[in-house]
Amino acid sequence: MSSVIIVGGTAGIGLELAKHYAVRGRSVVVSGRDRERAEQAAAEVDKIAVADTGGNAPQARGIALDLSRPQDIAAALSDVGPVDRLVLTAIERDLNSIAGYDVERAVRLTTLKLVGYHAVVNALLPQLSPDSSVLFFGGVAKDRPYAGSTTVSTINAGVVGMVRTLSVEIAPIRVNSIHPGIVGDSPFWLAKPAALEDARRRTLTDRSPTTADVVDASVFLLENRAVNGVDLHVDGGRREL
After folding, report:
1. How far apart are CA 237 and CA 77, in angstroms?
2. What are the tens digits of pLDDT across the range 114-132?
3. Strands 3-7 and 61-64
4. Whose CB among 8, 16, 145, 199 lies 3.0–4.6 Å from 182's, allowing a Cys bridge?
């Protein structure tokens, strides 16, 4: 059976995507830097799937995978088997400005996303079929930089370049990216009510996107066979006031 692999699936949107596929009877593999945490996330996915399917869903797996060590990625993925859907959502929050540039942090984050994401696709390419699809997570900081987003804005813009080249290079395998805005029900933003309210006011929908909205959009990109080479913003139609 082909698997859905969620790189960075131990929390947040990645974990919710894993649950979405598990309750639909799909074999799911979630990865995190820490094996124990990845296995705990897989157990949580299993619990939800059992409740929804009566125990008919395949058991989820948790594996350790550190994108900041791309030289180790192929070995970490060596036994996952055929892959139907591949989601790369792993990222680290970072504040780095050019005036106070932290080279070590910048190298780590750039390696994690721009090299690590590529290394995962390279390692799994023999396991992907012509009907498989790949989804990269970026972010709207590529278009709307903020104080301290020097590295984040750069690598999220790099995700667009990755989609452009890989959608051609590995066709007919589909490659898309999703760029969420401020996700209104995430713990990170719930702890910043002023910023959350400001973001809401700037949307055309008068509401910030939710985790469920991003999961729904992700599934669309992964499953719709006519969608390829697309960079989708999910931000409520934000406009600057």
Report:
1. 37
2. 999 999 999 999 999 999 9
3. unpaired
4. 199
